[in-house]
Amino acid sequence: MPAMELQGKVAVVTGASSGIGEATARALAGAGMDVVAVARRAERLDALAASVDHVHAQPADVTSDDEVQTLAGAVASQFGACHLLVNNAGASLGGPFLGWDDVAEVRAALDVNFFGAIRCMAAFAPLLFASAPGRVVNVASVAGKIAAGYPGYSASKFALVGFTEGVGASWAARGVTVSQVNPGFVQTEGFPQNDLTASPLTRRLVATPELVAAAIVEVARSGVPERTVPRWYRPFVVARHVAAPVVRAATRRF
Ligand SMILES: NC(=O)c1ccc[n+]([C@@H]2O[C@H](COP(=O)([O-])OP(=O)(O)OC[C@H]3O[C@@H](n4cnc5c(N)ncnc54)[C@H](OP(=O)(O)O)[C@@H]3O)[C@@H](O)[C@H]2O)c1
Prior knowledge:
Layout: E1 10-14, H1 19-30, E2 34-38, H2 42-51, E3 55-57, H3 65-79, E4 84-87, H4 103-131, E5 134-139, H5 151-172, E6 176-183, H6 194-197, H7 200-203, H8 209-222, E7 226-229, H9 234-242, H10 244-251
Parallel strand pairs: 1-2, 1-4, 2-3, 4-5, 5-6, 6-7
Helix pairs in contact: 1-8, 3-4, 4-5, 9-10
This protein binds NADP nicotinamide-adenine-dinucleotide phosphate.
């Protein structure tokens, strides 16, 4: 598959008001793209747009059909194209699951982490196809490959991984590759990783948002279907498929 030149092209990044999305918006603008930065906190987006050339603030809530459709309409009329959609908006919803009281949180996790991406793909599909060749990069998680204690969150990411793989062939036929980027532990506002960063022994397991942003830029260029970041998590993901009982035993304590 030929590499995509990013310079002068248009990207939409959801969840760009902090963490991985903000770092990705900066990195893509640095690569020469016009970047539409999306999230609910408009003041954060305005501050980002004011400090980085070629970043444009466009507040929207990805759990709202209407707001996502308005967003796609605004990008179409302002830029006339969309070559890259990064579905990154997400939240660490869905703790332990013990019964009915926890159903609402599982639903909430799916609504933002899974259906948020689906809404954006649906709303941007006509513009992406018309602007082809193009890319969709869905930010799932290693938790979308190995479920270890956060069933609602993991379910939302497993669903996103399944959808990404399932839709890939039909979108590729229209000139748009659909890829998954699966981060491990990353220190951000929504995922502070306090337990891991508290100890020098486990601190090394935690990556930066900039490392994930660099992987997203690479995937946007190459269109590879899947990327785990940091790369050293990859053997665990492979092991989940070839030696599932071993991985289950290892993660049982979580
Ligand atoms: N950090 C990790 O360890 C880790 C690991 C694997 C995967 N991930 C995934 O990486 C993605 C980014 O997370 P992060 O770590 O960078 O966390 P973060 O700093 O908390 O960023 C989450 C972003 O999503 C946005 N967002 C949340 N709900 C939204 C909604 N309904 N509509 C629009 N935007 C919404 C937030 O903006 P507003 O609040 O302003 O809307 C924020 O910009 C998520 O999908 C997460 O699941 C993170």
